[in-house]
Amino acid sequence: MVAPREIADVDELRTLAHPLRQRILRFLGQHGPATASIVGKALGESSGATSYHLRMLAKHAFVEEVPERAHGRERWWRAPAQDLRSPRAPRDPEVRALVEQLNQLKLAADQELFASFLERRAELGEWADALPYSRGSVRVTLDELHEFFDEYMALLKRYQRPVDETPADARHVAVRFFAFPVPGVTPGDPS
Q: Which of 13, 75, 77, 91 is 20 to 30 A (C-alpha) from 56?
């Protein structure tokens, strides 16, 4: 199991809060190792641009080279299994702004991914209705919310596996956790 890595450094957050770098990370996470050329072609970007951004991501260990797949000058990259977490209560205004920017990028990507699922749902066969959905709320202390999240992450990690260890009948399934305090609702409110 991969230990959580809190990303609170401004330079690391700037690296992650770049839209193309987020797209590169998603591509590698979904498709496995690739070269800058493969990533560039898939994302509609030049291999020079993707090569640069892959190196920036590698500088902070968000991606890593796959030396056993390299041929000559061709470099292969992968997104290693990581549990990247933003600071829980960033006090530094720049860190807070970068975390919010990163969260906005991720939320927009999730909305786009879900819209794509809905648009292409008919192509998914028996997976078309594989849409577990739950809405709920809990009344917890801040410490209990952190514990709840840690337990959710442990459950998620139980089912994560690398592309090369995925059974043939498995699908890549997006799983999201989203929790926030309800503004204006105080303890004892019947909501």
A: 91
